[in-house]
Structures are given as C-alpha cells and as structure tokens.
Design goal:
Radius of gyration: 20 Å
Distance between the termini: 50 Å
Number of helices: 9
Shape: globular
Structural class: mainly alpha
Number of strands: 2
Order of helices and strands: HHHEHHEHHHH
Oligomer: single chain
Largest sheet: 2 strands, parallel
Length: about 230
C-alpha cells in the first residue's frame, strides 16, 4: 500500500511497544499517524489490533479524529497455522522474513492452544464491532494476498475509490512466508496430540487446558488424577 504512494502508509501507530518519534501520548501518536500515515493524495492508513483499540478508546474518540473511515479486515483461513506463526515469532522476536531470529523456537502445544483461543476471541470482537456499527468491511485473506498481492492492492484501491495503475503496484516489497517446514511440522504434531472430536473447547474460560485434550479425555474417563 505504501509503495503505491496513494493508499497511505499503514503502520501500528497505536502499538505501545513501537516508538514513533517522541510521541508519548495517544493524541501525539494520532498526530504522527496523520503526518506519517498519509500519502500526498490525502489517504491515511492505520494498522490496528484489538489490543491497540483497548488503549486507544480510553483517550480519544475514534469517530471524531478518523471520520469517513474505510474498514479492511485482513484474516487468515488457516487459524492454526496463524497461531503457530505467532508463537514462533514471539519466541524468536522475528515478525517478518526481513528480521533474523534471535532464538530457536520451542514447541508447546499449550502455547499454541492459548494463541488459538486468543485469535478466536479477537475475531469475535471484530465481528461484534462491525455488526453493531453496521459496517461491511472489505474482507481480505492472507492466503490470497501471498499468492496474488497485485489483486489485493487493486481490491483495496477500488474499495476506497482510488485509481491505481498497474505500474504503480510494486510486488517486490512484501515479505515471504517464514519457516514453512517448521510450521507444518508443528501443525501436524499439534493435531496428533490435541485432536479429539468428543471435546468442544470453551472460549469463555479464557484459560489454557492444563492437560492435552487426549489427557483431558482420559481424566474424564477416570484414568488420570485431576490436575492441580
């Protein structure tokens, strides 16, 4: 989007773990977003997660500072793969393929399950938000973007009413999938350890299962003692 020079410069301007100049307050971050996130044609873009919104809504009225907003919801079809990617990135501190990992990731079924729940909850929050506000966002899928980034940019441009020429779409700027073989290995291992169609996870609990689902099933049948 940034490379087109017409679709804003999206970044996590309200992420408290990211630094933007000397901005220390939410309002100062808003001013940075207005200046840095905007392309010459007046289009401004912001990348937002629900955890950012939790902080944002305490300090500013979004609708007042960002009127006439267009909502783009980037999702992933394979939520388990997404959860695994998050865990690996959190452990290695490498969130894109442009960063060399600091550490070697260690498999944890419990951590993956927790992340699965977290992503599912945040997805539900966005669904409720869009429904309550009568918003029909442009829904994009990560898997489609990786295959055909040009189509994704064209969809975004059409959605916000910006004319983009093919020559303005630069496809060499996006990152690539990280450690695909490791991700697949973890995915297969997780399913082999946790698969159990007799158990339906309860998102409301918000806590991770102390046992794998297979062990939990054994506990229900009286073959294991109750966890501490």
């Amino acid at each position: 989007m940034s490379a087109t020079g017409k679709l804003g410069n999206p970044s996590e301007y309200f992420n408290p773990h990211m630094t933007f100049g000397n901005a220390s307050t939410i309002h100062e971050r808003y001013l940075i977003a207005r200046k840095t996130g905007m392309t010459p044609n007046g289009v401004m873009s912001i990348k937002m997660f629900t955890r950012h919104w939790n902080i944002l809504e305490q300090s500013i009225e979004f609708s007042e500072l960002f009127p006439n907003s267009y909502w783009i919801w980037l999702r992933r079809q394979d939520v388990l793969a997404q959860s695994i990617s998050h865990i690996i990135a959190m452990q290695t501190r490498a969130w894109t393929s442009l960063v060399n990992p600091d550490l070697t990731p260690v498999y944890s079924s419990d951590a993956i399950l927790q992340r699965l729940r977290y992503i599912s909850i945040t997805e539900s929050r966005w669904r409720i938000f869009f429904a309550c506000n009568g918003i029909s966002p442009l829904t994009l899928w990560y898997e489609d973007f990786i295959k055909t980034p040009e189509d994704t940019i064209r969809q975004i441009a059409a959605y916000v009413g910006v004319d983009i020429q093919p020559s303005e779409i630069k496809t060499g700027v996006y990152t690539h999938v990280q450690r695909p073989s490791l991700n697949e290995e973890w995915k297969e291992r997780f399913i082999s350890e946790m698969a159990n169609v007799n158990y339906l996870d309860q998102l409301q609990s918000g806590s991770s299962n102390p046992y794998s689902l297979q062990k939990f099933w054994q506990f229900l049948k009286g073959k294991l003692p109750a966890p501490n």
